[in-house]
## 1
Amino acid sequence: MANGGFLLVLSGPSGSGKGTVSEALMKKNEEIRYSTSVTTRKPRPGEVNGENYFFATKEEFEDMVKKDELLEHAFVHTNYYGTPKRFVFDEIDRGEIVLLEIDVQGALQVKEKYKEAVFIFLLPPSMDELLNRIRKRGTESEEDIETRFSNAFKEIDFVGEYDYFVVNDSVDNAVTDIENIIAAEKLRVKRHSDVKELVIKPKED
Amino acid sequence: MANGGFLLVLSGPSGSGKGTVSEALMKKNEEIRYSTSVTTRKPRPGEVNGENYFFATKEEFEDMVKKDELLEHAFVHTNYYGTPKRFVFDEIDRGEIVLLEIDVQGALQVKEKYKEAVFIFLLPPSMDELLNRIRKRGTESEEDIETRFSNAFKEIDFVGEYDYFVVNDSVDNAVTDIENIIAAEKLRVKRHSDVKELVIKPKED
């Protein structure tokens, strides 16, 4: 039943600032639910199952992949990470907006399985600024920086697969753009099973 | 060339308040262009060709219909009215947002010819309120009022053909909703030929 909920996929290349924007967006809009990932990595002290992550064994994770229970998944370093369908779809069924912040490869996987999501591509304001941002992390060798930059450049070609683009020239502007997109998507006819019902039986306050 | 412009079709049944909302929207957003209709009715004193309307003879109008130069047209009382493609498409090519306020039948005609437009269905807050609004016009017989009301009720079924719905519970709220939709639609990837260009060659201010 479509009752206004949807999955918002916020994605972009390394250095686009999707983590920062995502955090600022959540802080300003407490009603947005953050998609909880499932992972095979061990919980760190203080991490709560079902809150920070759903923790799973390698066997459990591979079983979820086999049963097509994930919207996307990736193997990073020595661990699996994925987005469980059940969590996302349960929230959407309750009319919630679920935010998934993810890299470009992950977003493209989600699109294959669930094109009803709203896909936003976060762009750096310029390629110079993108390089600055990648450099500022300061933890990587010049070679790593160049690889990351060249990957980011190539990933921007996938913007055509997305619904919206947002230029991250400032975090505030990017958040406002995303808030406008959310406001508009809430008014999509296709996200409501019966719009006529809204008028015939207006909701009690 | 897609450079961000689009046609916004604001439509709804009689009594939904589309005229009032449309006027308030234009007043607050002076950059929006209003679609100029072509008509066979005679200019009234003070009306300027190409500003209030494009005035045409019956023969000229029928020729435009024959050549498929109109997005929609209707015969009202003794005159033709229509929306010329050229005006709308020229403005869109310049990156402008063009507003067309039109009844449901007209909007459905536009959709047949140009589904790339953004279609907004304006709903009254309730059927009681719709009846109030139709009555308040005070110029019609009880029979006319009932016909108008019953037509409006049937027209709401076409909301499924539209992209967005906006409930006109107050003019201010309706205008804000439409402004959010416009802000979001400006960020649509498909409305820009080359999003990557935005990043590689950022525009000079």
Note: The two ends of chain A are 22 Å apart (CA to CA).
## 2
Amino acid sequence: MRAVVLVSGGMDSAVVLAHLRHEGFACTALSFDYGQRHRQELAAAARVAKALGAVEHLVQTIDMRCIGASALTADIPVPKDRSEDGTIPITYVPARNTVFLAYALALAEARECRTIGIGVNAVDYSGYPDCRGDFIAAFEAAANLGTKPSPHGPIRIVAPLVSMDKGQIVRRGVELGVDFGLTTSCYDPGADGRACRHCDACRLRALGFAAAGVADPVVS
Amino acid sequence: MRAVVLVSGGMDSAVVLAHLRHEGFACTALSFDYGQRHRQELAAAARVAKALGAVEHLVQTIDMRCIGASALTADIPVPKDRSEDGTIPITYVPARNTVFLAYALALAEARECRTIGIGVNAVDYSGYPDCRGDFIAAFEAAANLGTKPSPHGPIRIVAPLVSMDKGQIVRRGVELGVDFGLTTSCYDPGADGRACRHCDACRLRALGFAAAGVADPVVS
């Protein structure tokens, strides 16, 4: 069994990779260099892929900067200590997961993988519309209509974290032996690579470790 | 009203651009440099976008060669004078329209366009699964779940040619004043840029002009 797993270098996708490895999949880890300001995550993705025994790690370069309109890719400051107001934050990259899943689908089809893993979760998350289960299910339906039928069955988009909160994700990672010290979450690290601790990603990460009662090796 | 239109340089997408211009849309033409061997289509796309009054023409460079597995992007010969056997030909690029639509969606969301035009057709076509109406409808559903809701209504993926045969497409283009002499279709042109007349794309094009009773300015 082979799978393509989207691995960002963050904690969630590391848990998904560990989960699919635990289920016996030979995994191709796929990351994207999309002009993100937090490019340290690509080095983290390589560490995670290696530590968790991915068969290979591919970095697809894509240029979403021409699309602009996000604090992660354009010259817009990353918000700090943002209040939860239910709005979609400026760090949202338009249709990012659609683009990432489209590439994962192309790779899966070319390599005859029928499983794609993605670490979205819709409980403790930043409010991005493309992190919800109904989007993933709709993309899976489109993926199966838009690719060649296979004797190995339909394409499955596996999002094992989609209904977990951040504390559950940390606990599941610990169970699976994920070394969270290899991962990175910060959207806006300092020149020394240290997490800012104030962006949405840092705050969600801290919330998860606190809820799990586990020390975060990255900041402790 | 603004639209993003996928413009390949071929005849079908030229008709779609003309159709949306006729309906009053200000159109951003979007093309892809994806390592295709028939790169002459990018020059054709620029000619078509200009002639039909697109507001702008963007060329997104993407690298699908790492995915391989198609005669359009890998080192595999383009088949000539292929018999129609109902199989998906080797010129199929895995998930290509999914990737193209994902980028169009990102651009549409960033620019607050709610309409995306694509020139797929499922009547006289090469058997690619991502050219069918049910795929387009499923992608549209995913696109609306995966992007920010807008006060301007849902994203529409417009595929006005999906139920036309090639002859109808030629006639519609003539009605709309499309100069087909600006377009190119061949998958495997000679060093002089001339169409080979034997690949699937050349044969479908010839069939369309013959059915419409119109001379093709490119080969006549």
Note: The first strand of chain A starts at residue 2 and ends at 6.
